[in-house]
Amino acid sequence: MLEFLKKRRNHFIGIDFGTSSIKVVELSYENQKAKLENYGIVDLDWDGQGGQPNGASISSYEQKLNAALKGLVAKMKLKKGSQAYVSIPGFSGLITIIDLPDMRQDELARAIQFEAHKYIPSSLDEVAMSWEVIEHIEAGKTLAQNIGKDGGKRIKVLLVAAPKKDIEHYDRLVSGVNFEVNAIELETFSIARSLVGDDVGNFFIIDIGSRATNIILLEKGVVSVNRNIDAGGNEITTAISDSMRISRQRAETFKKGDKDLINSKESALIVPVLELIASESKRIINAHKEKNKDLRIDSVFLSGGTSKMKGLEEYFSRSLDMPVVLGNPWRRISSNDNVKPLIGQLGASFSVALGLALRGVEEYRRE
Ligand SMILES: Nc1ncnc2c1ncn2[C@@H]1O[C@H](COP(=O)(O)OP(=O)(O)OP(=O)(O)O)[C@@H](O)[C@H]1O
Ligand SMILES: [Mg+2]
Hints:
binds magnesium ion; Dna Ligase, domain 1; 6-stranded mixed β-sheet
């Protein structure tokens, strides 16, 4: 009986604090399937063009997020005590793979602390770190990165770090709506979970939001490279507004329209941010191919709200010279027929929120 009472509720909430909106999704797990129970989105109107809540009294960033989240949770009628999973923006954290000689667990902890100093400029007291051995490399294996080293057994360690103050910030916000915060993770892992899941192939993901772009390479299903570019859909709006000499508001509407602005041979708009994202992606893929000659990328996925832009798949397929498709974070999630068209519209702007809630599902399944 006690066991029964202790059993966790099979509902999980994912919360993505994006720059342009907060996205929330609730999934349940039953009959071996994750099911969509509820979803919601609230725009964060940073420009103050309408909808600004009470100007002076709600001024700070945190208060604004707090009010927006509270409103959304009330509208969605989410239960107090719900189990929530929350993301930290990719650009706030660090993901890196370290190559080390094989060693005992206690030595390893010290070695990683030492290595982490190379990557983390601030005091290690201010960051939360976690790590995991992702690969054992037998002695004498001549993977490019091992050449010239001692030739003994080596290991690859995935190191993840994020500032404690950011984690506390999101923890406060979500505890503030009386949810239980089960985990806070870098959004990179949420995106990878919803788009790739357990597939063990090599994947390349370009997630373009409004302020930021998150580029992710997964090798054998594990995140191995993560780059963040401090630009995204906002800069596309700027490029359209500048080149067509129209207001940002009109440019935003135009950007979301049915017309392909970026691929026509005669009149394609030059969008510097897309060129930047494409060239950075090419650089990462080429560097990866140099290191691992036999590895090939199975799929390239687009994600984030900007992935809905007309012609983006064609643009990146051409510039990367490989097929690029829209990622589908909903593919492993069942839903009622009446919401299916809405889900189609949301598309890959829910990759982060879904990946977070799917973490809850996965943890529950393993229990
Ligand atoms: N149909 C569309 N066509 C083109 N762009 C779109 C479309 N729909 C939304 N966008 C753009 O997507 C962006 C929002 O995407 P998303 O919700 O992924 O961002 P975010 O998570 O709030 O921001 P960030 O991840 O940068 O913090 C905005 O720039 C918006 O203009
Ligand atoms: Mg985002």
